[in-house]
Design goal:
The structure holds three protein chains of three kinds.
Chain A (H helix, E strand, L loop, with lengths): L10 H12 L7 H28 L4 H21 L2 H9 L1 H4 L2 H15 L4 H8 L4 H21 L2
Helix pairs in contact in A: 2-3, 3-6, 6-7
Chain B lengths: L7 E2 L2 E3 L5 E9 L1 H4 L9 E2 L10 H20 L8 E5 L6 H7 L6 E3 L6 H15 L4 E8 L1 H8 L15 E2 L2 E8 L5 E7 L14 H20 L8 E4 L3 H14 L8 E3 H5 L10 E2 L1 H17 L5 E9 L3 H5 L6 E10 L6
Helix pairs in contact in B: 2-3, 6-7
Chain C lengths: L1 H22 L4 H17 L2 H9 L1 H4 L2 H19 L3 H4 L6 H17 L5
Helix pairs in contact in C: 2-5
The chains are: A mainly alpha, B alpha/beta, C mainly alpha.
Chain lengths: 154, 343, 116
């Protein structure tokens, strides 16, 4: 243990402690996490495929069917979030629940449910996109820049 | 009359007038009620929202009930309190101050993150020992939902716990300290120093706080000339399974072997309860263990000396987002059974 | 057959994200941002379009598909109406999803409270 009279310890002492501490920190169960993320993420995508197939079989073109498919998946996720089920899917599957569009929808609904306590305008209204916001921001920034480059270099 | 009583031993505080804990109360939430400590709680509330609209209000109900039950157990009225010291985890310690608005007692709000329960007890015991108060009350609370939304994410968000994550304890615990003779006395306190070893990951509270706990424990043993086996039980606040393993290691490197008397409240609180990571955390974690398990075992004469070391991670959601490391603190109080005192 | 491919490709994308979370210690929010940007960039070089032809929902449902859809909408409108299309097209494919999410989130917030 270093000199306890200093609040901030020097980098050497901190590095030494962090080596000691990291030996006690359990490694994340990587194989288990990868398998559950793969399985649950895959299942969500397969469900999405079912919805997509339904819209295509009812006469839409593939392109036309994309937006309604996303809407249905988002609606499903909203219901699962309202009933606390998506939280548990996330606990179990990690990125398998976070990365599909259903995880994106979950962040919006979860934030809305949580922040309504601070009012429907400054709470729910203002904070609904507290986690989903960055996804939209960087999606638009990168999407528009990439498309601009491609459009200009036709 | 000159005061010749020695109140300071090394860097620790000794209470020669033997302030007594005459009553405790422990009000716990539903998850805590599933753990092994539940049999020592006064009350397990099945609805963690306590019928309230917001988790912040629910937390206040826990604290309010803890105060009422403690006073009832002590046979006192709120007016009898000379001082009330309270703390919690929420910004501006609103649980403590809003609850105190309903209690007609002089009030001090304290913040020591999850170390607050022992910090409050040390302050009240000091005041009672010094004669500034005849009867004082120390109370702390925490609430899973309230803490989660302040420090982390919305409750219903899909989030996978890390292998080092801890779960905030819902509940409140209070202790009534009196200058009169009581069953359990507070004999010493060792006030912690803030130590920052550069841990930045808020999922690693145990590793962030363990150095502070090691420092406080080491100083306590040096100041008092005791060894861990002097105590029947040494309990840390909420280091969790990982933090307490680091604590044992750090002390061993300085020649102190904690041995079998040492347990961690965080690890005990949710032993065998699924979905709670490496253990409980929060102000209520040490408070429920101290007022429940330890106090009641002492009343039953199952143990006669205990050392409680509550640990706090002094971060805010802003500091970790700004990439700052997490300073830790740990405060210790030594408790002893007073033989022959009426319970 | 396209169910199986959607399952395998979608699952693989999620497993890659999990790998970044556990090994590089990224926050889920950071990984979501990374994937949405990666989807847009891959869209720009035409690769994501081919992945969608192969895996359909397996590539559309992950957030990388969301980034691709933004890029694709912007490009499509730009080709149709010129420069301003880059902006008016950004939410061509994704706007509906965001509208549904906002409306349902608001409705659910009124009737349901967090429990977990």
């Amino acid at each position: 243990m270093p000199n306890p009279s200093k609040r901030k310890h020097n980098a050497n002492e901190q590095a030494k402690y962090q080596r000691i501490a990291s030996a006690h920190v359990p490694k994340p169960p990587l194989a288990r996490n990868l398998v559950t993320a793969f399985a649950v993420g895959g299942i969500i995508c397969a469900v999405g495929q079912g919805v997509l197939n339904y819209f295509v079989s009812s006469g839409m073109t593939f392109d036309e069917a994309i937006a309604p498919t996303l809407c249905v998946m988002i609606a499903l996720s909203a219901l699962l979030t309202a009933t606390s089920i998506y939280h548990h899917i996330g606990e179990f599957a990690g990125a398998g629940a976070a990365i599909p569009i259903t995880g994106f929808a979950n962040t919006i609904v979860a934030a809305a449910m949580d922040f309504k306590r601070e009012g429907y305008i400054l709470g729910m209204g203002a904070k609904m996109f507290i986690i989903a916001g960055p996804v939209i921001v960087y999606g638009v920034v990168s999407g528009v820049i990439v498309s601009a480059i491609r459009w200009l270099s036709r | 009359m000159a005061d010749v009583v020695q109140r300071r031993v090394g860097g620790s505080l000794r209470f020669p007038n033997r302030p007594s804990i005459i009553a405790s109360s422990t009000i716990a939430g539903p998850m805590e009620g599933k753990g092994p400590l539940a049999r020592w709680f006064d009350c397990v509330v099945e609805d963690d929202m306590f019928g309230e609209r917001t988790p912040e209000k629910a937390e206040r109900r826990f604290m309010r009930d803890a105060i009422d039950v403690a006073l009832k157990n002590a046979g006192l009225e709120p007016d009898d309190l000379h001082i009330m010291v309270a703390g919690d985890l929420l910004n501006q310690t609103v649980t403590a101050s809003f609850t105190a608005a309903e209690v007609p007692a002089p009030f001090m709000g304290v913040y020591g993150a999850c170390s607050t329960s022992v910090e409050g007890l040390a302050i009240v015991a000091s005041m009672v020992d010094a004669g500034f108060a005849d009867v004082g009350l120390s109370v702390t609370s925490s609430h899973y939902q309230a803490a989660e939304r302040q420090f982390r994410y919305p409750i219903e968000l899909n989030i996978q716990r890390k292998s080092t994550s801890q779960y905030t304890v819902t509940g409140a615990g209070a202790l009534v300290v009196s200058s009169g003779r009581g069953p359990v006395v507070v004999t010493e306190a060792t006030i912690g120093k803030v130590i920052d070893m550069g841990i930045k990951d808020p999922n690693q509270m145990g590793p962030a706080m363990a150095p502070a706990a090691a420092d406080t424990l080491y100083r306590h043993f040096v100041d008092t000339g005791r060894t861990p086996d002097y105590y029947d039980m040494i309990i840390t606040g909420d280091l969790g399974a990982v933090g307490s393993s680091i604590l044992r290691d750090l002390l061993q490197r300085r020649g102190v072997v904690l041995g079998d008397v040492y347990r961690d409240s965080g690890a005990l609180m949710f032993e065998g309860v699924p979905g709670t990571g490496v253990g409980g955390s929060g102000c209520a974690c040490a408070a429920l263990t101290m007022g429940g398990l330890i106090y009641k075992k002492m009343l039953a004469n199952e143990i006669s000396r205990a050392l409680v070391v509550a640990t706090g991670a002094l971060l805010s959601s802003l500091t970790w987002q700004q990439g700052e490391s997490i300073p830790g603190v740990a405060h210790a109080v030594a408790l002893e059974v007073q033989p022959g005192a009426a319970t | 057959m396209n169910y199986l491919i959607a399952f395998l490709v979608g699952g693989a994308i999620c497993a890659l994200a999990q790998l970044l979370i556990d090994v590089l210690k990224l926050q889920p929010a950071q990984v979501m941002v990374l994937f949405v940007a990666a989807g847009a960039v891959l869209s720009g070089i035409g690769a994501y379009e081919r992945l969608i032809e192969f895996a359909q929902a397996g590539a559309l449902i992950p957030v990388s598909g969301f980034g691709h859809s933004i890029a694709r909408g912007a490009l499509m409108e730009a080709e149709r109406i010129g420069f301003l299309g880059l902006f008016t097209g950004a939410f061509e494919f994704t706007g509906g999803g965001i509208a549904v999410a906002v409306l349902l989130a608001a409705a659910i917030a009124v009737i349901a409270s967090p429990k977990a």
